[in-house]
Amino acid sequence: MPIHSMTGYASLSTRAEGWVISVEARSVNHRGLDSRLVLPRACACLEPEILGMIRERMHRGRVEVRVEIIADESAGEGRAQRIDPARFESVCQELRQLGADNGLLGSSDGLELRDVLVFRQHFEIRDNGDTPTIDPQNPALRQAIDGAIAELVEARRVEGQGIARDLGEHLVVLAQNLEALETLLPAELGAFRERLSERLRDVMADFDAGEVDEERLAQEVVYYADKADICEELQRAQSHIGRIEALLAATSQSAETPQEPHGKTLDFYLQELIRETNTMGSKSNSARATDLVIAMKSTIERMREQAANIE
């Protein structure tokens, strides 16, 4: 099932039966699915159907679908608007009078058409009322809305695929650092045991504790060395990386397969990886191991930033 991003944009415009239908669909990050519609009054009855279209194809993100319908003035039946001569004359007279009263016009001939057109809303009328209406069952309207939502889903899929590729590259780097740390571990533990043994001997000598009990000393060294061992953390981190790789591998399936939300699952495994690397850092006893842990934490944080945009 493909990984989808939560951000995307699509627009679609079509003409049908004297109307121009424009649909915009966009989405941004959100913890759940939050759908918002901006529809003409004549299309309000379509709201449940449009919300259903969104729920069928998207699971997370703040999704907004905006539908605008205007009269098609290029339609062969004639113009959608015309001028009321009486209102036009009334506007002209009022402008002449106001201009003369306020010294804005030298004569009545000073009024030009462009001055009057600024107030066109006062003399324009529509053939079918002030607000264009369209049959909400018009197939072209439904196709436009469905098409815009489909384009939005495709835009989210394409962006999600790009994020998945980036995450895969980060996983390779992360796995390499884990392998380097695992390779370094035996030598680091041996050096740690030697330093710890020497330090315990020095402390006993400083306090004149007598002869060192080698068996007890060995027990103490093993105890503290075990506390510094990160083998379990390494194994868990490798397991989490394997789970993420398996999740990303699912993106190779058909884009037609209805997607399931992956973002929360990815975030969970990345949080677990951060927890394991934090523990490794607290147990680190060498500069080289610390550098590797810091590099891993930096990689995981970049992955979390990208995963936050996945549905």
UniProtKB/TrEMBL annotation:
Record keywords, A-Z: Endonuclease, Hydrolase, Nuclease
Is Hydrolase given among the entry's keywords?
Answer: yes
Q: Which residues form the Endoribonuclease YicC-like C-terminal domain?
A: 189-311
- Source domain of life is Bacteria
The chain's coiled-coil residues are none
Name any cofactors this protein relies on: a divalent metal cation
Task: Identify the residues that the record assigns to the Endoribonuclease YicC-like N-terminal domain, covering every copy.
Answer: 3-164
Q: Name one GO molecular function term.
A: hydrolase activity
Against Pfam families, the record matches this protein to: YicC-like_C, YicC-like_N
| NCBIfam families noted in UniProt | YicC/YloC family endoribonuclease (TIGR00255)
- What's the family? Belongs to the YicC/YloC family.
This chain's protein is named YicC family protein
Native organism is: Bradymonas sediminis
The opening ranks of the lineage are: Bacteria, Deltaproteobacteria, Bradymonadales, Bradymonadaceae, Bradymonas
